[in-house]
């Protein structure tokens, strides 16, 4: 009886409270994200360059049309896709392997998980500085190791062919730990009894992992992949600090090219048009993966 | 007892590993060993450089272990290269943005979790803001702040960072609130408490560990933030992530001094992470797995 009264009260007095508590966040986010986005959308239909004396004027879809014919845009899209796919693949494989290994340790799992997490909690600035040192042609330890192994020395971020793989390496280093942590937590939340039963049946450890663990981890893996995919797609920081898009345009990502157009050439209309296209691509990707995730799966959590 | 806590405080002891037999335990040891070396080596290198005397910064072969501890790098970094200012600016921006984000985000999370306010659309809208590339809003926001004459101020960066902290806090806390049994508040309401009081005195204390974990993440995130710091600063408000790349642009890179600044910037985050590792590991993973 008491609960019935309680529930009635909860729904009665709750509405106003519910709206009042959600209002600040909603209004604020509309103010600092939706409003600027709408402004940007308007800007993307304008010819508005800070470098020209002509006043901004409406040019319809011309910026988007230009985008379509801008080979640098396509190059940057290619760089972004290659970068995102590479980092996600190797991070997923390494993340799974390390998480499973971590789960096998008899002790100190949490301390080691925290130690491994260090790269992911450092500022991109700090990460870039560390790799600047490691990549140094003359005094860097990486080339020193290559020399010891009698392998050809690399230019790393300074070489047209090596720069993108070098950035993939940095991103791999920075974000694999995050992947490990998510998958590790997913493993921890699995019901142990399933595996014990499977082992009694005589399945080997590998069989258990492939046929029992991986399918149950699908949801966690999907979340990890979506989070990484989105941030890989908007990669900017390590490019800004390590290669500035170079050599040439070999590491110019979508976000970096958007920055170049907007903050170096001050072509606001064109830059915002590009930002919009990127945003649409990210939203579509996120929606696709979320859709895949929402399909009925054994709930991992 | 603490309703949001089970997932956070579940014992630290390793339960039965997923796979016992077949996969050699040595393989796990070797894998973790390689992992630890790989993920820590760059950090070690930074620390080593930070205490190397100048003649060991740029040598071939590189110096793996500094011949002596040279702490002048730190005093130079702090007092000559604006390290102190960087620390202060980073702290001001991170603490303010986290505090405001926690208040606004926690309230919204509670509303979304308990009353399903706005349905899935509002939830998804708030979450989707995290997906937005900063470059997409950087130009309008830059124009906005410069029209107000507020480019390069604490206020601009603090408000700008709410674009992450608010959705992030909302998203994480929503997952935790969903696990608080409704009965807990209902008994308080039946006893005549107002909504706000029930929330403040009953619900919030039961998710304290989650609050700590969430605030921690927001703090680390804002302390480290790079993109907006670079796009919206012009040299007056200089957070540590902003200072570092500017130092690397010079021709004669002062590796030891920069390493010292980088170490100073990394230290608070690493210390927080280790002091609160229980919250860190469980908090992040729990939130990420639970929500959406």
Overview of the structural elements:
- The complex is a heterodimer of chains A (301) and B (292).
- With 301 residues, chain A is mainly alpha-helical.
- Chain A has one domain: MetI-like (MetI-like fold), CATH 1.10.3720.
- In chain A, 74% of the residues lie in helices and 1% in strands.
- Chain A has a two-stranded antiparallel sheet.
- The longest helix of chain A has 42 residues, at 2-43.
- Chain A is globular.
- By secondary structure, chain B is an all-alpha fold.
- Chain B has one domain: MetI-like (MetI-like fold), CATH 1.10.3720.
- Helices cover 72% and strands 0% of the residues of chain B.
- In chain B, α3 crosses α13 (255-275), α4 (83-115) runs parallel beside α7 and α4 (83-115) packs across α10 (208-224).
- The longest helix of chain B is centred in the middle third of the chain and has 33 residues, at 83-115.
- Chain B starts with 5 loop residues before the first helix and ends with a helix.
- Mean pLDDT of chain B is 84; it is low at 1-14.
- At the A-B interface, α1, α3, α4, α5 and α7 of A face α2, α4, α5, α6 and α7 of B.
Compact overview of the structure:
The complex is a heterodimer of chains A (301) and B (292). Chain A has 301 residues and is an all-alpha fold.
Per-chain topology:
The complex is a heterodimer of chains A (301) and B (292).
Chain A: H1 2-43, E1 46-47, E2 57-58, H2 62-69, H3 71-104, H4 109-121, H5 124-135, H6 141-148, H7 163-188, H8 192-200, H9 205-216, H10 218-233, H11 237-242, H12 254-264, H13 268-294
Antiparallel strand pairs in A: 1-2
Chain B: H1 6-9, H2 25-50, H3 72-80, H4 83-115, H5 119-128, H6 134-147, H7 154-178, H8 182-190, H9 195-206, H10 208-224, H11 227-232, H12 240-248, H13 255-275, H14 277-290
Helix pairs in contact in B: 2-13, 3-13, 4-7, 4-10, 4-12, 5-7, 7-10, 7-14, 8-9, 10-13, 10-14, 12-13
Write out key terms for the chains shown.
heterodimer, A: 301 residues, mainly alpha, MetI-like fold, two-stranded antiparallel sheet, 13 helices, 2 strands, 74% helix, globular, disordered C terminus, B: 292 residues, 14 helices, 0% strand, disordered N terminus
